[in-house]
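Q: Hi! First time doing this. I have a protein sequence and I read that you can turn it into a structure. Is that right? Here it is:
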Amino acid sequence: MSSILHRLSRPVLTDLARALSAGRLLTPYSTLSLREWVVGPDQGLVCQELERFRLAGMSPAQIGMVFDLLAIERAQQQSDQDRIQMVWTGPDQEGFEARDTGVVARELLRHASRSLLITTFSISRDEATFEPVAAAMNENPDLDVTLVLNIDMSKEKPPLFGKEAICSFAEKFWSTQWPWRPRPKVFFDPRGTQRQQRASQHSKCVVVDLERVFVTSANYTESGQLRNIELGLVVHDAALARRVDVQFRSLISGKHLTRLPDQP
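A: Yes, that's right. Below is the predicted 3D structure, encoded as structure tokens:
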């Protein structure tokens, strides 16, 4: 059964709860007595609900407790909504609420103060994509940055595998995609460099300060951040952020991921 109480904001519910509990809102309930807390046509509907509670034998204080419980529930719902945010790149849709991928990525970088983990399958060929990350490291020397990348040089002409693929990728990465100092710690899945039965590091996520995690379909590229149709979620949850971070740290400690050579 739909009720006006489901539409009232949390502050209005809280104010009504306090007024009822303190004896400032008493019977007979009227639109006039409600005007301090409720405006417009909602006054009459709220009066009807108050009268329904009164006829059920509830005192103003008891009704105030109901309103207070509704306000607490509304606050929890808002907290849950704020904890998980939908992130989108692509054509805007009417009535469709989501934050832009590029905006979210830049905001996460700005707020990183201790650690930053970025995993991606594909990266842009120039320095533009990682420039904000380098700027964050320069502004905060204590920021620990780890990148987990994918190496696949099989489409090069001639195709490269094994040590040749790793050295070629490292030379290009440090000269064109990260030409700055200081440098982050960069790791890759060595299976991507195999000649046969290759496996890709295909995950795309960002973990900030072990507090927030951004899981997305978007690669860390200009097209993925700004132009493609991409979908992701930002979750403000320290437990989940730590689990994702530990998942990749365990791959590093278990030598499933290899450190990229630090070229001159």
